[in-house]
Design brief:
Order of helices and strands: HHEEEEEEEEEEEEE
Radius of gyration: 27 Å
Structural class: mainly beta
Distance between the termini: 57 Å
CATH architecture of the largest domain: Sandwich
Helix content: 10-25%
Number of helices: 2
Largest sheet: 5 strands, antiparallel
Number of strands: 13
Strand content: over 45%
């Protein structure tokens, strides 16, 4: 019979002694990874958009945007204003949570003006004629190191007059 190399032993490498223990730790870790993948597929960690609406006085505001996000995710938010009565100076006022740890890539169509209202972002959209709708898109990317919850409230103003308010909270997962 041939001799065994120096680093090998017959009991360990041929007879597999000491390997009769089941790899329970490995099974548990693989199960956890599998559950995380399954939860991701079931949208537990975000990305699917949610529609929030508010209406009053012949004006309706609809926000179509995810409430759950993942770090590094690219996403789009759509704001739709339906006006039965004319809005002279439509302005969307967004909470700072829309940009905290989230990069704004583009705004379409470009707003007429941008301003700061008490630390909130004000986007002047101009005139919305009666019986029409105005659709506005924001494209974002969540910064990879961000996690947590933040307020993403939205208000629609006509000049300085507040018309509608939508309460939103976004959760960012790692």
């Amino acid at each position: 019979m041939a001799s065994v190399p120096d680093q090998l032993t017959r009991e360990r490498h041929r007879d597999l002694e000491g390997r009769e223990r089941r790899p329970y730790v490995r099974w548990v870790l693989l199960t956890i990874v599998g559950l995380l993948v399954l939860l991701g597929l079931l949208n537990a960690f975000g990305q699917r958009p949610h529609t929030s609406t508010a209406s009053a006085g012949g004006v309706e505001l609809e926000v179509y945007s995810p409430r759950k996000l993942r770090s590094g995710l690219f996403f789009m938010s759509r704001f739709t204003i339906r006006a039965e009565d004319e809005i002279e100076a439509a302005t969307l006022v967004l909470d700072p949570g829309w940009l905290e740890g989230i990069t704004l890539n583009t705004l379409e169509p470009s707003p007429v003006g941008e301003a700061n209202r008490d630390g909130r972002i004000a986007l002047d959209l101009g005139r919305v004629p009666a019986g029409t709708k105005h659709v506005f898109f924001l494209h974002f990317q969540v910064n990879p190191t961000e996690i947590g919850q933040r307020s993403q409230d939205v208000e629609l103003h006509d000049g300085e007059t507040s018309l509608l308010h939508i309460d939103r909270t976004v959760t960012i997962f790692p």
